[in-house]
Amino acid sequence: MYPSFDLTGKIAVVTGASMGIGYGLSKALAHAGAKVAVTARSVNDLEKLVAEIAQEGGEAYAVPLDVRNVGEIQEVMNRIQKHFGRIDIVVNNAGLGANHPATEVTEADWDSMMDVNLKGLFFCCQAAGRIMLEQGYGRIINMSSQASVVGIKDHAVYCASKGGVNQLTRVLALEWSSRGVTVNAVGPTFTYTPGTAERLDDPDYLQTVVDRIPAGKVADIKDVAGAVIYLASPAGDMVTGTVLLVDGGWTAQ
């Protein structure tokens, strides 16, 4: 009768988990009851995260994964499935961001961002989807951005990549939802992390951002985690093919 946000017994995978939003999401999923496979390019970067989750009573498993290496994605997902017995939730968080005036974008700039933000994300969806469709159950959550639905100056490639994430999310939801696998995206606004602190700790820069956010503040990782846990939980069973914006009202204008 009442919605449940409990993830006890679920197996979650988080890509790009070694820092920032991915680090926080991994801890939040574990706090909600999930066992979490955390991935990044180097397992060494994940040791602190695994230890912290264990100290808080959770369970985490570190696996190296560079999402630019498409050939290893299915192998890693299969390894996680073998370790835990199944995969219930995948959060495709690995991503790149950069500021380039459109006239200065190089082919290398384009390829490096698309390889991670869109190509790598798709093949992670595919690899996880194969496992989940066989199980008849799964929750895929793709990290998008408010920049997927509004333009932001000097972010042509980033906006294009995140717009692509939204479209992939919709198509995969259409293909897989009838077989028990929901696919959604979460689109945060500017979010305070160790990686964004250099810019957001600048009062002038922060003010230019906050002026665009009706809520009057930037997001915190817990704000993003709340959306992810909702979509991963039984409470989100009927939500699929949507982009849940955690933007403080930025895109309402």
Short summary:
This protein is α/β, with parallel strands linked by helices and 253 residues long. It has a single domain (11-191, 220-245), classed as Rossmann fold.
Task: Give a quick set of tags describing it.
single chain; 253 residues; alpha/beta; Rossmann fold; seven-stranded parallel β-sheet; two-stranded parallel sheet; 8 helices; 9 strands; 16% strand; globular; NAD(P)-bd_dom_sf; Sc_DH/Rdtase_CS; SDR family oxidoreductase; KR_dom
Please characterize this protein's 3D structure:
Helix 1 (20-31) crosses helix 8 and helix 3 runs parallel beside helix 4 (107-135). The model has no long low-confidence stretch (mean pLDDT 97). Strands 3-2-1-4-5-6-9 form a seven-stranded parallel sheet, with helices on both faces. It has a two-stranded parallel ribbon with strand order 7-8. It has a single domain (11-191, 220-245), classed as NAD(P)-binding Rossmann-like Domain (Rossmann fold), CATH 3.40.50.720. It has helices spanning 20-31, 47-55, 70-84, 107-135, 156-176, 197-200, 203-210, 221-232, and strands spanning 11-14, 35-40, 60-64, 89-92, 138-143, 181-188, 191-192, 219-220, 243-246. With 253 residues, it is of the alpha/beta class. It has eight helices and nine strands. The termini are far apart. Helix content is 43%, strand content 16%. Residues 10-189 form the Ketoreductase domain. InterPro entries: KR_dom, NAD(P)-bd_dom_sf, Sc_DH/Rdtase_CS, SDR, SDR_fam. This is SDR family oxidoreductase. Belongs to the short-chain dehydrogenases/reductases (SDR) family. It holds the Pfam family adh_short_C2.
